[in-house]
Design a protein that fits this description.
Layout: H1 3-24, H2 31-49, H3 54-80
Helix pairs in contact: 1-2, 2-3
Length: about 80
């Protein structure tokens, strides 16, 4: 299994968890983080299942890093109480 497939699964699960938390616990500021994770998980899955190319793998990891930084920042701001 490709690392990008694993990352896609983690992003998808985290996105569902954050969306549920935003809907049921009143954390509306988590919606953008959940959306970013849920939208990019299928893209990472497609990159992970595509025939191996160094350019595509690098692009996938750069995409994953960007999503992780953006969604992680939003989630950290919510859970740590920073606005």
């Amino acid at each position: 299994m490709s690392a990008l497939v694993l990352i896609a699964g983690i992003f998808g699960a985290a996105g569902v968890g954050l969306a549920a938390l935003a809907a049921h616990a009143g954390g509306a500021d988590l919606n953008p983080a959940a959306l970013m994770l849920l939208v990019h998980a299928p893209a990472l899955l497609a990159l992970g299942l595509a025939p191996a190319s160094k350019t595509m793998r690098t692009g996938g990891f750069v995409l994953a890093a960007g999503v992780l930084l953006f969604a992680g920042d939003l989630a950290a701001r919510h859970f740590l109480g920073h606005k």
